[in-house]
Structures are given as C-alpha cells and as structure tokens.
Amino acid sequence: MMTDSRSADRDAATDALFKALSDGTRRALLETLVREGEQNVQALTQQSGVSQPMVSRHMAKLKRAGLVTARRTGRETWYAARVKGLAPVIGWMAVHGALWSQRFSALEGLGK
Amino acid sequence: MMTDSRSADRDAATDALFKALSDGTRRALLETLVREGEQNVQALTQQSGVSQPMVSRHMAKLKRAGLVTARRTGRETWYAARVKGLAPVIGWMAVHGALWSQRFSALEGLGK
DNA sequence: TTAACCCATAATCATTGGGTTATGGATTGG
DNA sequence: CCAATCCATAACCCAATGATTATGGGTTAA
C-alpha cells in the first residue's frame, strides 16, 4: 500500500542503495567481490588504493545497503557480494513502467 | 578498449549517473517527467516541494548525467526524461556478468 | 604472557552537496 | 517602454561524506 505519492522515490532502502552505489570506490570494491568472491578486509584494502579504515567504512555502508554480507571468523572479516541486494534498483526502474521496461530487452545484447 | 582494470567503476559518466540517481528529490523529479512527460521548471517546482533554484540545479545535474534533455522556448525551459540515459546503469549491472544477469529475468515479474 | 596481526572506531580535515534567499538576464504582455 | 514572468546563477549556511592518521579491542602465534 502506498502511503504517499512520492514514497517510491523517497523509500529509505532505495535511497541507501543508490547512495551506496554512487561512489566509485565502493563500486570497485563491490565488483571485486563479484569477480573474485569472498574477500577479507586486507585483500580489499590492497586492491582498492585507499586506507584500511576507509575500506571498513565503505563495506559498512555497502552492508547497510544490503549489497554485501559480512562473516567474521576470528580476527578476519570476510565480505561477499549479496546478489539480491540490487533488486530494489531493478524495482525502481520497473516502477517507471513500460517506458523504461521496453529498454530492459536491451539487456540481452549487453550481456557479455 | 579497457585502459585500466578499475576503469569500469571509475568511469566519469557512470559516476555522474549514479550520483544523479542518489538523491530522492532528483529521482522524484525524474519520475514526474517519465509519468507526465515534458515539463517546465514552474510545474516541476510546484510538485517537488523545493524551491525553484533548487529545481534548476537538480535538473542541471540530471542533464549532465544524461537523464534528461532541455529545450528552451522563450523564457521557459522544458525538460524531458531521456530514456537512453539509464543504459549505463544497465551496462554496469551487466558488467558483473552472469551472476547479476540471471536476476534480470526477474524484471518481467516486477514490471507493473 | 607477550607480541604481532586484523579490523573497526574515533578524531580530524577538506570537499561536496542539498537547501535557502537574493539577484539578474532574457522574454513576454500591457 | 515598463512591468511581470520564467529561469539560472550567486552567495551563503549547514550537514553529510570521503579521506587520512591514531587508537584500541579482539584473536592468533611464539
């Protein structure tokens, strides 16, 4: 049930998700997880080009947005991409109706 | 041709696009254009809940991101959603390969 | 137990960015 | 020509954020 006509674009989860994706460093971190699977903070720090604390904070934000999961074993924290996390993005695009939806067929062409 | 292994997530256009979508007010403005078609700044201001200068600045950002087009006639500026503008978002998702691509089939179910 | 290691948080800084009101340029209407 | 209208830009405020170094808590190893 829609409580406000503007709620679709003001949804807190959707907002957190788009904000999480709006930074290049975070997107790069996420892509590393997608490509290379679960990684600990050490490994992510080495490939990211930013400091370890920054990686921790970026991962926290990605986690709050639902884009990664965290699994702690001993002193290491292992992060993994959470595939379902992008669903709200797809949902947001779908909300715009047939106009945008038509373009989704182009996905097949883009799928490399 | 890929000039840098990290370039996919550091591409300036992609960054501008995600940043443009990361604000709820801008997404609401964009959705208005998608739903109701071309609108001038006046109309957008009335429905947005923010001041006219803020609308102008948001629209400028959406335009730089390639999500809207602007057409000036006399003293009015008419903005329209640019459907192709979302392609890089879809492209970015596709870059992540089959892992994400599988989920795109869920679009059909989400398409209302 | 002590040292080394992994990670998260705190403190700090500079920049970005959303918001406002004020202003001004360009266009239309009397 | 003058006034009203439409929009963009400027000036400003404050909160959020990306980044750093410093610190500290918890875990493994010697």
Question: In words, what does this structure look like?
Answer:
- The structure is a homodimer of 112-residue chains.
- With 112 residues, chain A is α+β, with helices and mostly antiparallel strands.
- The first copy, chain A, has one domain: Winged helix-like DNA-binding domain superfamily/Winged helix DNA-binding domain (Arc Repressor Mutant, subunit A, Orthogonal Bundle).
- Helix content of chain A is 59%, strand content 12%.
- Chain A contains 8 helices and 3 strands, in the order αααβααββααα.
- The first copy, chain A, has helices at residues 7-10, 12-21, 24-36, 41-48, 52-64, 87-95, 98-101, 106-110, and strands spanning 39-40, 68-73, 76-81.
- In chain A, strands 1-3-2 form a 3-stranded antiparallel β-sheet.
- The longest helix of chain A is centred in the N-terminal third of the chain and has 13 residues, at 24-36.
- Chains A and B meet through helix 1, helix 2, helix 3, helix 6 and helix 7 of A and helix 1, helix 2, helix 3, helix 6 and helix 7 of B.
- Chain A binds a DNA duplex (30 and 30 nucleotides) through residues 23, 25, 40-42, 50-58, 60, 72, 74-77.
Name its key features.
homodimer, 112 residues, alpha+beta, Arc Repressor Mutant, subunit A, 3 strands, elongated, DNA-binding
Give the arrangement of secondary structure elements.
The structure is a homodimer of 112-residue chains.
Chain A lengths: L6 H4 L1 H10 L2 H13 L2 E2 H8 L3 H13 L3 E6 L2 E6 L5 H9 L2 H4 L4 H5 L2
Chain A binds a DNA duplex (30 and 30 nucleotides) through helix 5.
Pfam family, one (chains A, B): HTH_20
Keywords (chains A, B): DNA-binding, Transcription, Transcription regulation
Organism (chains A, B): Sphingobium cupriresistens
